[in-house]
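User: I'm putting together a small comparison set for a docking exercise, and I want a reference complex before I start. The sequence is below, and the ligand is flavin-adenine dinucleotide. Could you produce the 3D structure with the ligand included, as structure tokens?
Assistant: Of course. I'll restate your input first, then give the structure tokens for the complex.
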Amino acid sequence: MDFEWTPEQDDLRAHARKVATDAVERYGRHNDSWINGFSKDFAKEMAALGWIGMTWPTEHGGGGRPPIDRLIVGEELISAGAPIAAMWFADRQMGPTLINFGTADQQEEFLPGILSGDTTWCIGMSEPDSGSDLASLTTSAERDGNDFVINGQKIWTSFGESADYCYLICRTDSSGPPHTGISEVIVPMDSPGIEVRPITDMTTNRHFCEVWFSDVRVPVANLVGVEGNAFKQTMRQLEHERGGIDRLVSNRALYEMAAARADANDPRVRQEMAAIEIEYRLGRVLVAREVLGQAPSGFSAATKCFCTEHEVRVAEFVAATLGAEATLWTDVTKGLAYAPGYTIMGGTSNIMRNILGERVLGLPREPR
Ligand SMILES: Cc1cc2nc3c(=O)[nH]c(=O)nc-3n(C[C@H](O)[C@H](O)[C@H](O)COP(=O)(O)OP(=O)(O)OC[C@H]3O[C@@H](n4cnc5c(N)ncnc54)[C@H](O)[C@@H]3O)c2cc1C
């Protein structure tokens, strides 16, 4: 097995590192920059470089490049803290979903805006009483002529306030078992009847929102995939969401800052740094397997669990190394306060372990 990068991949990494350094100088460094570093201007710069949709098929306007190229670019940009949040969700999830499940009209209407960095998308999945158990969601979309009429509430909707479109997971039929009757619908965020209330989290970030839908009308043509049969489609999307490099390097910059200040003469510190470096390398291998399509189905749950628990360990190392000094830097304090989110967003570690046990290892399900 050859773990060496090709000269072209080394060149791409060097280019991405330079772009990232330059972006950090101009836009500031962001912890967890794929969710907290929001800049439309930088999204357009990414588009100009061909770094949005870089792995999408060329017939859909993408770059047709190998997935490992996206891993390299993503790793450099996120590790440095460059602000990619305005385009990341759409590049990672909505574009591939529309390519896989969307109609030709939807692809024509929505993909160009994603590729140009002009449109930002949010994901309307979680509800106040429906997080881990997605099948319990109640936000409804009822047919009325050529429209769906949407009612309900979403929460924790990142970029709800700034997004142009919401990729909404909703219930179009409640007569069957919970995981049936679920559909995915594209909702323009300027539709009448949408109310967005940002939530300020304890780090003072405001990407989270509560979103209310009151008789919001959306054309039936905005249904993605088969009506009432989106559960599997959503699970596949979550696989895209879980196995990527964004789950490993969100606080890499903080780690490097703390590592430079750590007392490497202390054997306990050396041991912890060695453990973190080993985990980081193992995490990269797991992510590489995901993006190369070499991981078994459902295994992104293990990748997400391992990588985000690594990010929590990094945050603990940074806190232990800097001690009270951490409070001298607002962005360090914010980065540390954000750490509990790693193992929650995109599905909690408990849920990842359930998926791993039940779907990958085939262990018996606990009777309900
Ligand atoms: C930074 C961040 C960004 C997010 N962005 C978005 C977004 O853009 N769009 C969106 O829709 N959502 C978003 N979320 C929400 C996220 O998807 C949910 O928080 C997550 O799915 C957990 O749901 P919950 O918060 O309702 O917790 P719950 O599901 O209520 O879980 C509470 C606790 O119970 C445990 N638990 C629940 N069920 C089981 C079980 N069956 N077995 C074992 N343990 C269980 C969980 O592990 C957890 O510890 C975001 C969350 C974070 C932290």
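The pocket of flavin-adenine dinucleotide is lined by residues 122-126, 131-132, 156-158, 341, 344-345, 347-348, 350-351, 354 (CB under 6 Å). The chain has a mean pLDDT of 94.
User: Thanks, that's exactly what I needed.
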